[in-house]
Amino acid sequence: MQPGYTDDKAAVLKRLKRIEGQVRGIHRMVEQDTYCIDVLTQVSAATKALQSVALVLVGDHLNHCVADAITQGGPGATAKIQEAQEAIARLIKS
Fold first, then answer.
1. Cα(25)–Cα(67) distance, rounded to whole angstroms?
2. DSSP string of 13-81, one letter each residue
3. Which CATH number is associated with domain 8-93?
């Protein structure tokens, strides 16, 4: 079974590369003793970017993996729904 994000893989990887660059930039800012608020602003931007990637992944998971499991029915469908609920709960807590 392919991951639900297969169709969006290139876009997800591009976003993750951008986030990686943001985090490296934050690292440099700390090394250079940049003003705290400026560093925190960049941390907030990187956090939002990761949340954006997470939303894409959740949407793809629901539209592909969970939808396929529901179509097939049985206990696998219930398990996929529960798994999605737990993943969403973890994202909300973070």
1. 39
2. HHHHHHHHHHHHHHHHHHHTT--HHHHHHHHHHHHHHHHHHHHHHHHHIIIIIIHHHHHH-SHHHHHHH
3. 1.20.58.1000
Question: Measured between alpha carbons, how far is 80 from 19 in angstroms, rounded to an integer?
Answer: 29
**Confidence (pLDDT) at 6:** 78
What is the residue-averaged pLDDT of the chain? 93
Phi, psi at 74, each rounded to 5°: 80, -170
Q: Domain boundaries in the chain? A: 8-93
Dump pLDDT digits (tens) for 20-66.
Answer: 999 999 999 999 999 999 999 999 999 999 999 999 999 999 999 99
